[in-house]
């Protein structure tokens, strides 16, 4: 028995922050989620799998475009001709509503509703498969819905589909122990845009998204081909991302010129179909004219107008501590950091802003405070460079 496990297709991702790129490249980036999804369905046909699991956030928004729906319908129809089933749940981005879709998917597609449901399926090798899941009916679900999943049924192999985060109170929170207690053979997870195997036997798996959507979603993206033989589960990762995001750190010195800097950046842009966020380390070493050229985005524009294997997405300047100031001001920095960079105080700065889903989710990210602290320190170091 074989099946595919994919999640977080995010069809119609807008790819913000790419206005510096050519119109042609912007168009290609916005088409990349479709191309990545096509790789999923092409693989299903090639491998002659029994079924495909899509574990939530198939669309980037609950108001999915007709284009995205028609694309899926056509791909699902291709699977139907090969007698391949699709088991689909909606997540927090594309949460389920009555009359959610404008178009009707073919009969080989089962969409789980807001109540936890188990479907039975008989694979080509005769195994009886139980597949349990539910779709979001609103953007945030604070309840531990996994408690409503039944214990393992009378199946040869049972799969749980869940779009959720470990201990994440906004998205159907769970602990790994909660899943293990159910006695299932495989947990097909979605929501986290990072490939991660939380447990091996039974397999509890995040495949990540199929195409990186921003500079923080690095590494090649894809999905899993899962093979089951005599109750043994084997996973094979298959890359689907058209473009890969990467981060590069470039150290500079005091005698750096624009020419030498451009040469160094050119050498670092050596990976095909990669969008690079470049951090220039020790930026306090650069002379004022070079810094101005970077801050005016002239260097970025230069690389957007020439062809290199990698695409330069963004340039960050990192100003490190001034040794003369660091010892004197360290205790004052520590005092100010503890007083000002407090997560609760940041949340209380503007209740209207914190009420925004995008801002609230960003503030609640595990490394938010660390990033804010680094940005603050960098701003201070930049301001007092050379003084």
Concise account of the structure shown:
Helix content is 32%, strand content 24%. By secondary structure, the protein is an alpha/beta fold.
Outline? globular
CATH names the topology of the largest domain as: Purple Acid Phosphatase, chain A, domain 2
**Count of helical segments?**
11
Structural class: alpha/beta
Helix content: 25-40%
CATH C-level label of the largest domain: Alpha Beta
Termini distance? 68 Å
- Poorly predicted runs are none
* Average pLDDT score: 87
Specify the biggest β-sheet.
6 strands, mixed
DSSP, total strands: 15
- Write the H/E string, N to C: EHEHEEEEEHEEEEEEHEHHEHHHHH
Query: Going across the major beta sheet, what is the strand order?
Result: 4-3-2-1-11-12
CATH superfamily of the largest domain: Metallo-dependent phosphatases
Can you tell me about this structure?
- The structure is a single chain.
- The chain is an alpha/beta fold.
- The protein is built from 11 helices and 15 strands.
- The strands form 3 sheets. A 6-stranded mixed beta sheet has the order 4-3-2-1-11-12, with helices on one face. The protein has a 6-stranded mixed beta sheet with strand order 5-6-7-8-10-9, with no helix packed on it.
- α1 runs parallel beside α2 (66-81).
- The radius of gyration is 24 Å and the shape is globular.
- The termini are far apart.
- The relative contact order is 0.10.
